Amino acid sequence: MKAIRVKGLREGNATIALETIDTPTISHPQEVLVRVLAVGLDGTDREILQEKYGTPAEGEDDLTTGHESLGVVTEAGADSGFQVGDLVTAIVRRPCKDQNCVNCRNGHADFCQTGKYVERGIKGAHGFLAEFYKEESRYLVQVPSSLLKLGMLVEPQSIVEKVWDQVQRVQQRLIWEPRTALILGSGPLGLLAAMTCRLLGLDAYVWSMSPQDSLQAQLVQACGAVYQQSGAAGTVETLTAYADGLGKPVDLILECTGYSPLAFEAMSVLAPNGVLALLGVTPADRKLEISADMLNQGMVLENKCVIGSVNASRKDFETAIYRLQQMEKFVPDWLARLVTNRLDLEAILKLDFKSIPIKAVVDVMPVEQWGDLVKQTKEVAYSFSV
Ligand code: BGC
Ligand code: ZN
Known about the structure:
Quinone Oxidoreductase, Chain A, domain 1, Rossmann fold, 6-stranded parallel β-sheet, 10 helices, globular, binds zinc ion
Protein backbone atom coordinates (compact mmCIF):
# COMPACT_ATOMS: atom_id res chain seq x y z
CA MET A 1 0.00 0.00 0.00
CA LYS A 2 1.00 3.64 -0.37
CA ALA A 3 1.90 5.81 2.62
CA ILE A 4 3.29 9.30 3.21
CA ARG A 5 6.40 8.98 5.33
CA VAL A 6 8.90 11.31 6.88
CA LYS A 7 12.10 9.37 6.42
CA GLY A 8 15.36 9.42 8.34
CA LEU A 9 14.01 11.34 11.35
CA ARG A 10 16.79 10.17 13.63
CA GLU A 11 19.54 11.22 11.24
CA GLY A 12 18.71 14.92 11.22
CA ASN A 13 18.14 15.56 7.49
CA ALA A 14 14.76 13.94 7.00
CA THR A 15 12.85 13.83 3.72
CA ILE A 16 9.23 13.17 2.77
CA ALA A 17 8.34 10.33 0.46
CA LEU A 18 5.34 8.50 -0.92
CA GLU A 19 6.37 4.92 -0.23
CA THR A 20 5.01 1.50 -0.98
CA ILE A 21 4.94 -0.50 2.24
CA ASP A 22 3.28 -3.71 3.43
CA THR A 23 -0.46 -3.54 4.03
CA PRO A 24 -1.13 -4.39 7.69
CA THR A 25 -3.02 -7.57 8.51
CA ILE A 26 -5.14 -8.16 11.58
CA SER A 27 -4.22 -10.98 13.92
CA HIS A 28 -6.39 -10.47 17.00
CA PRO A 29 -10.18 -10.77 17.45
CA GLN A 30 -10.35 -7.18 18.68
CA GLU A 31 -8.41 -5.71 15.80
CA VAL A 32 -9.89 -3.91 12.83
CA LEU A 33 -8.47 -3.15 9.39
CA VAL A 34 -9.49 0.26 8.11
CA ARG A 35 -9.34 1.60 4.54
CA VAL A 36 -8.50 5.29 4.81
CA LEU A 37 -10.82 7.64 2.93
CA ALA A 38 -9.46 11.03 3.95
CA VAL A 39 -7.07 12.71 6.36
CA GLY A 40 -7.15 16.37 7.44
CA LEU A 41 -3.93 18.34 7.87
CA ASP A 42 -3.34 20.77 10.74
CA GLY A 43 -0.50 22.85 12.15
CA THR A 44 1.14 19.81 13.71
CA ASP A 45 1.22 18.12 10.29
CA ARG A 46 2.72 21.27 8.81
CA GLU A 47 5.47 21.12 11.43
CA ILE A 48 6.06 17.44 10.76
CA LEU A 49 6.09 17.75 6.98
CA GLN A 50 7.99 21.06 6.76
CA GLU A 51 10.27 20.99 9.78
CA LYS A 52 10.42 17.18 9.97
CA TYR A 53 9.41 17.27 13.60
CA GLY A 54 7.71 13.90 14.40
CA THR A 55 9.12 11.05 16.49
CA PRO A 56 9.25 7.58 14.91
CA ALA A 57 8.36 4.42 16.81
CA GLU A 58 11.12 2.76 18.83
CA GLY A 59 13.68 1.11 16.60
CA GLU A 60 12.41 2.86 13.45
CA ASP A 61 13.66 5.86 11.46
CA ASP A 62 10.52 6.68 9.49
CA LEU A 63 7.07 7.94 10.47
CA THR A 64 3.82 7.70 8.54
CA THR A 65 2.13 11.03 9.25
CA GLY A 66 -1.53 12.07 9.57
CA HIS A 67 -3.81 11.99 12.61
CA GLU A 68 -7.19 13.47 11.55
CA SER A 69 -8.64 10.39 9.92
CA LEU A 70 -11.81 9.15 8.30
CA GLY A 71 -11.95 5.56 7.13
CA VAL A 72 -14.12 2.54 6.54
CA VAL A 73 -13.79 -0.91 8.12
CA THR A 74 -12.72 -3.53 5.57
CA GLU A 75 -11.98 -6.38 8.00
CA ALA A 76 -13.32 -6.70 11.53
CA GLY A 77 -12.03 -9.10 14.20
CA ALA A 78 -14.74 -11.35 15.69
CA ASP A 79 -14.73 -9.49 19.04
CA SER A 80 -14.19 -5.99 17.70
CA GLY A 81 -17.83 -4.90 17.74
CA PHE A 82 -17.36 -3.44 14.25
CA GLN A 83 -18.62 -4.65 10.89
CA VAL A 84 -17.26 -4.33 7.39
CA GLY A 85 -18.60 -1.07 5.95
CA ASP A 86 -18.63 0.90 9.23
CA LEU A 87 -17.43 4.48 8.93
CA VAL A 88 -14.83 5.25 11.61
CA THR A 89 -12.34 7.74 12.94
CA ALA A 90 -9.52 6.98 15.38
CA ILE A 91 -8.50 8.54 18.65
CA VAL A 92 -4.94 9.91 18.29
CA ARG A 93 -3.23 9.19 21.61
CA ARG A 94 -2.39 5.80 23.09
CA PRO A 95 -1.71 5.32 26.82
CA CYS A 96 1.76 5.01 28.34
CA LYS A 97 2.71 1.72 29.98
CA ASP A 98 3.35 3.04 33.47
CA GLN A 99 1.10 1.23 35.97
CA ASN A 100 1.09 4.35 38.15
CA CYS A 101 -0.22 6.68 35.45
CA VAL A 102 -3.79 6.85 36.74
CA ASN A 103 -5.03 8.82 33.77
CA CYS A 104 -3.64 6.45 31.16
CA ARG A 105 -4.97 3.53 33.19
CA ASN A 106 -8.44 5.09 33.16
CA GLY A 107 -8.98 5.88 29.49
CA HIS A 108 -7.53 9.37 29.73
CA ALA A 109 -4.21 9.23 27.90
CA ASP A 110 -4.95 12.88 27.06
CA PHE A 111 -3.97 13.55 30.70
CA CYS A 112 -0.93 11.23 30.70
CA GLN A 113 1.37 12.11 33.58
CA THR A 114 4.56 10.45 32.41
CA GLY A 115 4.81 12.00 28.94
CA LYS A 116 5.47 8.51 27.60
CA TYR A 117 2.20 8.37 25.67
CA VAL A 118 2.22 7.67 21.96
CA GLU A 119 0.33 9.68 19.32
CA ARG A 120 -0.42 8.09 15.97
CA GLY A 121 1.14 10.12 13.17
CA ILE A 122 2.98 12.42 15.60
CA LYS A 123 4.95 10.69 18.31
CA GLY A 124 6.09 7.07 18.48
CA ALA A 125 3.51 5.44 16.20
CA HIS A 126 2.60 5.53 12.52
CA GLY A 127 -0.34 7.67 11.48
CA PHE A 128 -3.11 7.44 8.96
CA LEU A 129 -1.78 8.95 5.72
CA ALA A 130 -1.71 5.52 4.16
CA GLU A 131 -4.22 3.42 2.28
CA PHE A 132 -4.88 1.16 5.29
CA TYR A 133 -4.22 1.05 9.01
CA LYS A 134 -5.01 -1.51 11.68
CA GLU A 135 -6.21 -0.62 15.11
CA GLU A 136 -7.64 -2.06 18.30
CA SER A 137 -11.37 -1.49 18.30
CA ARG A 138 -11.25 0.46 21.59
CA TYR A 139 -9.46 3.31 19.82
CA LEU A 140 -11.98 3.58 17.01
CA VAL A 141 -15.10 5.72 17.08
CA GLN A 142 -18.00 5.03 14.74
CA VAL A 143 -19.04 7.97 12.59
CA PRO A 144 -22.64 8.30 11.36
CA SER A 145 -23.04 8.28 7.57
CA SER A 146 -24.58 11.77 7.72
CA LEU A 147 -20.98 12.91 8.33
CA LEU A 148 -19.57 10.91 5.41
CA LYS A 149 -17.99 13.96 3.78
CA LEU A 150 -16.95 15.65 7.03
CA GLY A 151 -15.81 12.87 9.36
CA MET A 152 -12.16 13.96 9.16
CA LEU A 153 -13.22 17.05 11.16
CA VAL A 154 -14.19 14.97 14.21
CA GLU A 155 -10.60 15.00 15.54
CA PRO A 156 -10.09 18.79 15.37
CA GLN A 157 -13.55 19.32 16.88
CA SER A 158 -12.67 16.87 19.68
CA ILE A 159 -9.98 19.37 20.75
CA VAL A 160 -12.67 22.05 21.14
CA GLU A 161 -14.94 19.64 23.03
CA LYS A 162 -12.21 18.73 25.47
CA VAL A 163 -11.44 22.31 26.32
CA TRP A 164 -15.12 23.21 26.74
CA ASP A 165 -15.56 20.23 29.06
CA GLN A 166 -12.50 21.35 31.02
CA VAL A 167 -13.76 24.90 31.30
CA GLN A 168 -17.09 23.70 32.64
CA ARG A 169 -15.38 21.51 35.24
CA VAL A 170 -13.06 24.31 36.37
CA GLN A 171 -15.93 26.73 36.67
CA GLN A 172 -17.81 24.50 39.05
CA ARG A 173 -15.77 26.47 41.59
CA LEU A 174 -18.41 29.22 41.41
CA ILE A 175 -21.73 30.26 39.90
CA TRP A 176 -20.74 31.10 36.35
CA GLU A 177 -23.03 32.37 33.66
CA PRO A 178 -20.73 33.18 30.75
CA ARG A 179 -22.08 35.49 28.07
CA THR A 180 -19.07 36.47 26.00
CA ALA A 181 -16.30 34.41 24.44
CA LEU A 182 -13.25 35.77 22.66
CA ILE A 183 -11.43 33.48 20.25
CA LEU A 184 -7.88 34.35 19.23
CA GLY A 185 -7.04 33.02 15.78
CA SER A 186 -9.14 32.04 12.78
CA GLY A 187 -7.48 28.82 11.65
CA PRO A 188 -9.60 25.64 11.63
CA LEU A 189 -9.47 25.39 15.43
CA GLY A 190 -10.43 29.04 16.00
CA LEU A 191 -13.30 28.77 13.54
CA LEU A 192 -14.63 25.52 15.04
CA ALA A 193 -14.31 27.11 18.48
CA ALA A 194 -16.26 30.20 17.36
CA MET A 195 -19.03 28.07 15.87
CA THR A 196 -19.15 25.92 19.02
CA CYS A 197 -19.45 29.00 21.23
CA ARG A 198 -22.36 30.22 19.11
CA LEU A 199 -24.09 26.84 19.45
CA LEU A 200 -23.56 27.10 23.21
CA GLY A 201 -25.42 30.39 23.16
CA LEU A 202 -22.43 32.65 23.79
CA ASP A 203 -21.72 35.94 22.07
CA ALA A 204 -18.53 35.13 20.19
CA TYR A 205 -15.81 37.49 18.97
CA VAL A 206 -12.87 36.41 16.83
CA TRP A 207 -9.66 38.44 16.73
CA SER A 208 -7.20 37.34 14.08
CA MET A 209 -4.75 38.46 11.41
CA SER A 210 -6.78 37.50 8.34
CA PRO A 211 -8.24 40.44 6.40
CA GLN A 212 -11.72 41.73 7.17
CA ASP A 213 -13.03 40.41 3.82
CA SER A 214 -11.31 37.00 4.06
CA LEU A 215 -13.10 33.66 3.94
CA GLN A 216 -12.20 33.28 7.62
CA ALA A 217 -14.06 36.52 8.43
CA GLN A 218 -17.03 35.42 6.30
CA LEU A 219 -17.26 32.07 8.10
CA VAL A 220 -17.08 33.81 11.47
CA GLN A 221 -19.95 36.07 10.46
CA ALA A 222 -21.91 33.18 8.93
CA CYS A 223 -22.14 31.50 12.32
CA GLY A 224 -23.26 34.72 13.99
CA ALA A 225 -19.94 35.68 15.57
CA VAL A 226 -18.13 39.01 15.16
CA TYR A 227 -14.81 39.22 13.32
CA GLN A 228 -12.05 41.75 13.89
CA GLN A 229 -8.77 41.84 12.01
CA SER A 230 -5.86 42.41 14.36
CA GLY A 231 -2.89 44.63 13.82
CA ALA A 232 -3.64 45.93 10.31
CA ALA A 233 -3.32 49.64 9.56
CA GLY A 234 -6.51 51.49 10.41
CA THR A 235 -7.73 48.77 12.78
CA VAL A 236 -7.50 48.42 16.53
CA GLU A 237 -3.85 47.72 17.30
CA THR A 238 -3.80 45.71 20.50
CA LEU A 239 -5.93 43.00 22.03
CA THR A 240 -6.31 45.17 25.12
CA ALA A 241 -7.73 48.04 23.07
CA TYR A 242 -10.03 45.67 21.20
CA ALA A 243 -11.35 44.04 24.36
CA ASP A 244 -11.86 47.46 25.99
CA GLY A 245 -13.81 48.53 22.94
CA LEU A 246 -16.22 45.63 23.34
CA GLY A 247 -17.45 47.33 26.49
CA LYS A 248 -18.39 44.08 28.22
CA PRO A 249 -16.67 41.46 30.34
CA VAL A 250 -14.88 38.71 28.40
CA ASP A 251 -15.81 35.58 30.35
CA LEU A 252 -13.95 33.04 28.24
CA ILE A 253 -10.91 33.36 26.00
CA LEU A 254 -9.79 30.53 23.74
CA GLU A 255 -6.23 31.14 22.53
CA CYS A 256 -5.86 29.28 19.23
CA THR A 257 -2.87 31.04 17.64
CA GLY A 258 0.01 29.66 19.72
CA TYR A 259 1.55 33.15 19.64
CA SER A 260 2.61 33.22 23.28
CA PRO A 261 2.77 37.03 23.80
CA LEU A 262 -0.96 37.09 23.04
CA ALA A 263 -1.56 34.56 25.81
CA PHE A 264 -0.12 37.01 28.36
CA GLU A 265 -2.07 39.94 26.99
CA ALA A 266 -5.19 37.77 27.15
CA MET A 267 -4.69 37.27 30.89
CA SER A 268 -5.09 40.98 31.45
CA VAL A 269 -8.23 41.37 29.31
CA LEU A 270 -10.04 38.44 30.94
CA ALA A 271 -13.06 39.35 33.10
CA PRO A 272 -13.15 38.63 36.84
CA ASN A 273 -13.84 34.88 37.43
CA GLY A 274 -13.08 34.20 33.77
CA VAL A 275 -11.12 31.40 32.13
CA LEU A 276 -8.37 31.69 29.56
CA ALA A 277 -7.75 28.40 27.79
CA LEU A 278 -4.52 27.94 25.85
CA LEU A 279 -4.78 25.57 22.89
CA GLY A 280 -1.96 26.58 20.57
CA VAL A 281 1.81 26.15 20.51
CA THR A 282 4.54 27.45 18.23
CA PRO A 283 7.96 25.85 18.01
CA ALA A 284 9.80 29.04 18.99
CA ASP A 285 11.59 30.24 22.10
CA ARG A 286 10.38 33.81 22.52
CA LYS A 287 11.44 35.96 25.45
CA LEU A 288 9.02 38.59 26.62
CA GLU A 289 9.00 41.55 28.97
CA ILE A 290 5.72 41.60 30.87
CA SER A 291 4.14 43.55 33.72
CA ALA A 292 4.48 40.52 35.94
CA ASP A 293 3.18 42.16 39.14
CA MET A 294 0.15 43.65 37.43
CA LEU A 295 -0.70 40.35 35.79
CA ASN A 296 -0.23 38.49 39.04
CA GLN A 297 -2.39 41.00 40.88
CA GLY A 298 -5.15 40.76 38.29
CA MET A 299 -5.19 37.00 38.42
CA VAL A 300 -5.36 36.91 42.23
CA LEU A 301 -7.74 39.77 42.93
CA GLU A 302 -10.16 38.68 40.20
CA ASN A 303 -10.10 34.90 40.65
CA LYS A 304 -8.97 34.39 37.10
CA CYS A 305 -7.96 31.02 35.74
CA VAL A 306 -5.61 29.98 32.95
CA ILE A 307 -5.66 26.40 31.70
CA GLY A 308 -3.81 24.55 28.98
CA SER A 309 -5.56 21.80 27.05
CA VAL A 310 -4.21 19.20 24.64
CA ASN A 311 -5.53 16.18 22.78
CA ALA A 312 -8.92 14.59 23.56
CA SER A 313 -10.51 11.44 24.94
CA ARG A 314 -13.05 9.11 23.39
CA LYS A 315 -15.94 10.99 25.00
CA ASP A 316 -14.75 14.23 23.36
CA PHE A 317 -14.75 12.49 19.98
CA GLU A 318 -18.33 11.39 20.54
CA THR A 319 -19.42 14.86 21.59
CA ALA A 320 -17.60 16.24 18.54
CA ILE A 321 -19.72 14.01 16.28
CA TYR A 322 -22.87 15.31 17.93
CA ARG A 323 -21.68 18.92 17.61
CA LEU A 324 -20.64 18.65 13.94
CA GLN A 325 -24.14 17.39 13.18
CA GLN A 326 -25.58 20.37 15.06
CA MET A 327 -23.34 22.70 13.02
CA GLU A 328 -24.60 21.20 9.77
CA LYS A 329 -28.17 21.93 10.84
CA PHE A 330 -27.38 25.42 12.14
CA VAL A 331 -25.50 26.67 9.05
CA PRO A 332 -25.64 24.10 6.23
CA ASP A 333 -22.39 23.77 4.25
CA TRP A 334 -20.42 25.89 6.71
CA LEU A 335 -18.12 22.95 7.51
CA ALA A 336 -17.63 22.15 3.83
CA ARG A 337 -16.49 25.77 3.26
CA LEU A 338 -13.89 25.33 5.98
CA VAL A 339 -12.20 22.69 3.85
CA THR A 340 -10.52 24.97 1.32
CA ASN A 341 -8.12 22.48 -0.29
CA ARG A 342 -8.53 18.85 -1.30
CA LEU A 343 -5.55 16.92 -2.57
CA ASP A 344 -4.38 13.38 -3.16
CA LEU A 345 -1.45 11.56 -1.54
CA GLU A 346 0.94 12.48 -4.35
CA ALA A 347 0.19 16.20 -4.04
CA ILE A 348 1.49 16.27 -0.45
CA LEU A 349 5.03 15.97 -1.78
CA LYS A 350 4.85 19.38 -3.39
CA LEU A 351 2.33 21.01 -1.06
CA ASP A 352 2.93 24.66 -0.25
CA PHE A 353 1.27 25.18 3.13
CA LYS A 354 1.04 28.92 2.46
CA SER A 355 -1.44 28.15 -0.31
CA ILE A 356 -3.97 26.73 2.17
CA PRO A 357 -6.40 29.48 3.22
CA ILE A 358 -7.98 27.42 6.03
CA LYS A 359 -7.90 23.63 5.91
CA ALA A 360 -6.52 20.99 3.58
CA VAL A 361 -7.92 17.47 3.39
CA VAL A 362 -6.09 14.63 1.66
CA ASP A 363 -8.47 12.29 -0.17
CA VAL A 364 -6.56 9.05 0.18
CA MET A 365 -9.26 7.49 -1.98
CA PRO A 366 -11.21 9.49 -4.62
CA VAL A 367 -14.44 10.81 -3.03
CA GLU A 368 -16.66 9.24 -5.76
CA GLN A 369 -15.56 5.78 -4.60
CA TRP A 370 -16.31 6.23 -0.90
CA GLY A 371 -19.99 5.39 -1.16
CA ASP A 372 -19.27 1.89 -2.50
CA LEU A 373 -17.32 0.92 0.61
CA VAL A 374 -19.51 2.46 3.30
CA LYS A 375 -22.36 0.20 4.35
CA GLN A 376 -23.50 1.11 7.83
CA THR A 377 -25.26 -1.83 9.36
CA LYS A 378 -26.46 0.21 12.33
CA GLU A 379 -26.75 3.97 12.48
CA VAL A 380 -24.96 5.50 15.44
CA ALA A 381 -26.47 8.39 17.28
CA TYR A 382 -24.58 10.27 19.94
CA SER A 383 -26.91 12.52 21.81
CA PHE A 384 -25.74 14.54 24.74
CA SER A 385 -27.25 17.23 26.82
CA VAL A 386 -24.46 19.73 26.49
C1 BGC B 1 -3.40 16.93 17.71
C2 BGC B 1 -3.51 16.38 19.12
C3 BGC B 1 -2.13 16.18 19.71
C4 BGC B 1 -1.34 17.46 19.61
C5 BGC B 1 0.06 17.36 20.21
C6 BGC B 1 -2.51 18.13 17.69
O1 BGC B 1 -2.33 18.54 16.36
O2 BGC B 1 -4.68 17.25 17.22
O3 BGC B 1 -4.23 15.17 19.11
O4 BGC B 1 -2.24 15.76 21.05
O5 BGC B 1 -1.26 17.87 18.26
O6 BGC B 1 0.86 16.43 19.57
ZN1 ZN C 1 0.47 7.94 30.99
